[in-house]
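Page 47, continued from p. 46.
Same chain as before, 130 aa.
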Amino acid sequence: MTDELIFIDTNILMELLFRRSNYDLAMNGIMSLRKNCTVCVSIVSLATVLYFVESQGFDKKIAHNFMKGYKILDMNNDDYIWAEKNDQGDFEDALQTACARRYKCSYILTLDKKFAKMYGKFFPVHMITQ
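Result:
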């Protein structure tokens, strides 16, 4: 039996890497995942995280090591087409949803309330709450 794939939204990565105000909430959400699941992120999340690392002058080696803890999923033209067709006002979230759908992840884990409202009708989106 293969591991269950759980897709993690970019905001969780940002909270964890930069130890932002919702760090504990994000960490609790990650720690509550089943032990035999594979935690996935998209290549878009990786690019976004590294953009902020570079723009804030942080050490890229730390960020690269941090990202190695996740399975990084690529994106393709089909994801773009799906996102364009189903864009609900946040194109990046539409791309994330398309990627998670294509890889048959079980759900997307996020801290973003809008994500669940906009894209929950297309794919399961779980909000981390206190």
